[in-house]
Design goal:
There is one protein chain. The chain has 279 residues and is mainly alpha-helical. 73% of the residues lie in helices and 0% in strands. It contains 14 helices and no strands. It is globular.
């Protein structure tokens, strides 16, 4: 590689990095400025951070919204990892007769086809279903956190992701576990899960971020102010006649911190998990 070509590559990477990071820098800077400065596009830090924080705490109850989002995201992530990994593991590891294999592949293909259906097309039947459930089991019906978790606790993408990663899993370890007398559940819990920790880390990041930022379904199914999540709270902040953009930016910064923390804590395993490697 020539020196001139390398210089152009570094210039391109620097420009791409600035473009990628700029929205986050502007968001943090705007959280310290007044609303009028945000609308003017001020790019220098201000001295209005504490006032924005005071206004935010006086305007909305952000702590309950954060707790609601945390409950939903953690529950969804744990259930999604368990169910999707078991499904992906079962699809790939348990081979059977040719006739059964055709049926299993057909079921898996149907799962993949479900990824083509937009969620907006499923909202009405989902809402009607949870409306019917509310009449007999109000604890998991409309306007409950459970009604947000259940439809999203696993996805066809996660099942596909775990099945593809299981292709890289050494079958010798499964046979060794069976020889040592482990049950199939024991092999899954004590051999497969610890070995595939990078895959679990990548899936956890994807699921947690998706659940934390979920807006459309909670907007439809959650009706009480005490059950609203952080995306709904931020949306309400911006729906007023004269929104305070400094306060909105501060709320967005606070809402971004948990997902950023999860990513930075697990980033070492993220790339390896997405590549399907086994260590």
């Amino acid at each position: 590689m020539t020196k001139v070509k390398r210089i152009f590559i570094y210039i391109f990477l620097i420009i791409a990095s600035v473009v990628s990071v700029f929205p986050f820098i502007w968001m943090i800077v705007s959280a310290t400025n007044k609303s009028v400065d945000v609308t003017k596009g001020r790019l220098l830090p201000g001295s209005n951070f504490m006032q924005n924080l005071t206004n935010l705490l006086e305007t909305v109850d952000i702590v309950p919204a954060l707790l609601n989002s945390a409950k939903i995201s953690i529950s969804t992530t744990v259930l999604a990892l368990l169910i999707a990994s078991m499904a992906g593991y079962g699809f790939e590891v348990y081979k059977s007769k040719a006739k059964d294999m055709v049926f299993k592949d057909m079921v898996f293909n149907i799962l993949l086809l479900s990824m083509m259906i937009p969620f907006a097309a499923l909202m009405v039947p989902l809402y009607r279903m949870f409306g019917s459930i509310s009449q007999t089991m109000p604890s998991i019906g409309i306007d409950t956190l459970t009604s947000v978790v259940l439809p999203t606790m696993t996805t066809a993408f996660l099942i596909f992701f775990f099945r593809q990663s299981t292709k890289m899993f050494p079958r010798e370890m499964i046979e060794a576990g069976r020889i040592d007398g482990l049950s199939e559940i024991g092999i899954f819990l004590r051999i497969f899960m610890p070995t595939m920790k990078t895959t679990y880390a990548a899936a956890a990041i994807i699921t947690f971020m998706s659940s934390w930022n979920n807006y459309l379904w909670p907007l439809v199914v959650l009706q009480s102010p005490e059950n609203q999540t952080i995306p709904l709270l931020i949306s309400n902040l911006g729906s007023g006649y004269s929104p305070d953009f400094g306060v909105i930016m501060l709320a967005i910064v606070i809402a971004t911190l948990p997902t950023a923390l999860v990513f930075f804590l697990m980033q070492r395993h993220f790339v390896a998990g997405m590549m399907g490697s086994v260590k």
